[in-house]
Structures are given as C-alpha cells and as structure tokens.
Write a structure and sequence with these properties.
2 domains, alpha+beta, OB fold (Dihydrolipoamide Acetyltransferase, E2P), 5 strands, 4 helices, about 160 residues, single chain, about 50% helix
Length: about 160
C-alpha cells in the first residue's frame, strides 16, 4: 500500500470511530430526567412479509413532549394519566431509560441498546482489528460503515 492510501484509510477509520464514540457516549452519559403524564399507549402490530407471516406487537407511549417505545411488560402495567419518569439523551434526544413512578425498576427499550451500544461497539472493534492486524476485510468494514451511517440517520430522525 502506498503512504497516501494508509493516510486515507487512517482518516476514514478515525472519522467513523469518532462517530461511533459519539453515539455511544450519547447513550452512556446520563441525560435530562423528565417526568410527564402518559396520554396514550398504542399497541402496534408489526408484521413480517415472509412465508410464515409472523408478527409481533410493539408498544408506544405518548406524553405531552415525547413519543417512545417501551417493552410489552411495562405496557401491561401502565394506566392512562399515570406519571412516568424517563431520561432523554443530550445529543440525539432519544429516550434512554424509563420507569413508572410507582415502580422501582427502570427499563431500556432493546432497540436503543442495539442502535447506540452494539452497532458502534462492533464498528470500533472491527476497525481496530482491521487497522492493527492489517487484514483485508474491506467489505466488512464498508458494510459496517454504511450500517453506522444508517444508525446515525435513525438517531437523528
């Protein structure tokens, strides 16, 4: 590899590593605590378009300020007009953690773990491995970079 190619590779690895770290830090750093009244809980049927025609339900809580998804166990315990405490991330304004005021235990929606912890961590580990081992896994790196960009768009929107 030429010297310019190594510098270019290092630049892009650094850029995507910084993006991954920003996403992870936004999730890991405690955000703003909000206490609000639940206005609605929507049960949505999510259907897969495969041969088995499987489906699952997702539950969305709406408050006066935010709409966010919760687990099915929490949704079964919620009453309308009940107060809920949740933590909103500082950068992307996503709900990191939530709990009913009548409960001790808080919870985090699993998609938040995947989009803000698992994907960025996978990108960081793979890029570090590729850079330090000099292995040619450029296709995997490209796929993970696209996945990280899609994750970033998901968090922004």
């Amino acid at each position: 590899m030429s010297f310019d190619h190594n510098k270019l590779r290092f630049f892009f690895y650094s850029l995507y590593s910084i993006l991954a770290l920003i996403i992870m830090v936004d999730f890991l750093i405690p955000g703003n605590k909000v206490i609000d009244e639940i206005s609605t809980v929507q049960k949505e049927r999510q259907q897969y378009f495969n041969a088995a025609r499987n489906f699952h339900y997702s539950y969305k809580v709406s408050t006066s300020q935010y709409d966010f998804y919760i687990t099915g166990d929490y949704a079964k315990e919620i009453d309308i007009n009940e107060r809920i405490e949740f933590e909103v991330s500082l950068l992307f304004k996503e709900v990191n953690e939530y709990r009913l005021l009548s409960f001790e235990k808080s919870d985090t929606y699993s998609l938040r773990y995947i989009s803000s912890l698992f994907i960025p961590l996978l990108v960081l580990i793979t890029m570090a491995f590729a850079y330090f081992s000099k292995k040619k896994i450029s296709t995997l790196i490209f796929v993970l970079q696209v996945l990280l960009l899609a994750d970033l768009v998901f968090l922004i929107l």
